[in-house]
Design goal:
This protein has one domain (5-194): Vaccinia Virus protein VP39 (Rossmann fold). It is of the alpha/beta class. It has helices spanning 5-16, 20-29, 63-74, 112-122, 140-156, 166-172, and strands at residues 34-39, 53-59, 80-83, 97-103, 123-134, 176-183, 188-194. 35% of the residues lie in helices and 26% in strands. Its EC number is 2.1.1.-.
């Protein structure tokens, strides 16, 4: 399944990107300013939406995803550099980035707390941290369904945890949550944070 996932991901996202999903993604990414770190850039879905960045450093651990992203990277108005690395060990100096963007990626990161620590390390003081994530829903039946499906879903979808509570993980980090907006009955959240350390 691994080698087919990038193409399947793109096909699955295409109809969503023509709906409110695209508006959410575009609005969030437009808020990224200065030098931007994108965590888990995948197939480059965010690349066309960068308008206020001066430079984007995009990391993605899956080489097959990175290949798909090259087409979108070439069409971007903003300079984008991709790196084949994991979020848990970023190859950047402390206090490098003005903004960090992560969309639909924290569900797949094997060690999310370590990734959050790295994001904080490489972000400048008061850097914007902008996330769009699906999370475990706090409704008995739907939450349980996410729990039951997660083991199979992880195998089929490149390690994605349907039931990860990313908002709670962020609250346990040293990032300051400034705003949370809920979409699609609470399955998706935009989370805006500041690196206040």
């Amino acid at each position: 399944m691994g080698k087919w996932f990038p193409s399947i991901y793109d096909m699955a996202m295409r109809p969503l990107e023509k709906t409110k999903f695209n508006k959410i993604r575009k609005t969030l990414v437009n808020q990224a300013i200065g030098r931007v770190l994108e965590i888990g850039s995948g197939t480059g879905m965010n690349f066309p939406h960068y308008k206020n960045a001066t430079q984007v450093d995009a990391i993605e651990p899956n080489p097959l995803m990175d290949e798909q992203a090259l087409k979108r990277m070439e069409r971007s108005r903003i300079p984008i550099q991709t790196y084949l690395v994991k979020a848990e060990k970023l190859p950047f100096a402390d206090n490098t980035f003005d903004s960090v963007v992560a969309t639909l990626v924290f569900c797949t990161i094997p060690e999310p707390m370590k990734a959050l620590q790295e994001i904080q390390r490489v972000s400048k003081p008061n850097a914007k941290i902008l996330l769009f994530e699906h999370v475990r829903v706090d409704k008995a039946l739907l939450g349980k369904t996410q729990d039951v499906l997660t083991p199979l879903w992880k195998k089929a979808c490149d390690g994605c945890h349907l039931n990860r509570d990313t908002l709670e993980l962020i609250k346990q980090s040293n990032l300051s949550v400034m705003e949370v907006d809920s979409y699609f009955n609470g399955i998706f959240l935009t989370i805006k944070c500041l690196n206040e350390t």
